[in-house]
Amino acid sequence: MSGICVDFKTGKLLYDILLFKQDSIYGKHSVNSYATPTPCIEHGFVYLNFGSSGTACINSENCQIIWKRDDLKCDHMQGTGSSPMLYKDLLILHYEGTDHQFIVALNKKSGVTVWKSERPQEYYDRLSPVGKKAYVTPIVVNVDGKDLLISNGAAVCIAYEVETGKEVWRFIQGEDSTIAMPFAENGVVYFYTSFVNPPDGEKYIEMVAIDPRASGDITKTDKVLWRIKSPILQLLTPLIKDGIIYTVDSRNNLTVIDAKSGIPLYTKKLKNKFNSSPVYAGGKVYFTSVKGETLVLKAGRTLEILSENKLPGDLFATPAIAQNSILIRNEFSLYRIGNK
Fold first, then answer.
1. Fewer CB within 10 Å, N- or C-terminus of the chain?
2. What is the pTM of this model?
């Protein structure tokens, strides 16, 4: 398990740092990798997480290792997927395995554990082992002046006090893995639930809109503003911008939704799958398919396709936007597309 540093202007490899050696490797899903979690970065430091294989903090100026942890463990089964996130002096990590499900906050300067919260086992004990697994990355939202960590695990989405790990509210639904991140805008939190398995119908998930000014179990309360059915196995995280939600479901349906009402503004069937999440820049929304095709839409309430482009190879990683450029990683290469 290594960390790689590349020159932004030239693409030249500057550092390739071995972080963790493995005596054996755990299994993974065919669309997953052993380096799926996205690193997070701040001035002077970068943080890399490889799930149970370990977490490391590196000085981004000289690529020296500041600290490492390899004692946080769970059975990933199909591979890890949760990315680390920074909040003030905390580095927050999710370990959502078939055997153990918990969230841990480390001191970002030392790697020492600040708090740890176990998932409520009463909702996990009834699930199959693979159903307990989640690949989620949390978000932080400010609610009436207080920051909450929104974490959407298998079977239950929970809001925690981000500085202590104490639970504030929970929404309970489903019985299998969650993958897509929550997202938020204008004081409303949105997320995909885990699988619902009706006795006489096809499995489905729902996109729900939540008023986060809440406490306790909000599953059957008016804090649930709206909900929309969607196919299971939702990988990408929708994009929300100016009251409009952009997403592609697991059956290749591009859907653009009014965030206030939950009513679709338009839909379009696409020919390929889209596992990487859409990104926004300069009034445009970028969707990249597993076949390396990038669909560029004009942001807005009506469909306007601006361009379609293609790179060689399969692509699962979400593009990044930096310095008027798009950074795209596929199975073979890292690309920078933009001005020199």
1. C
2. 0.93
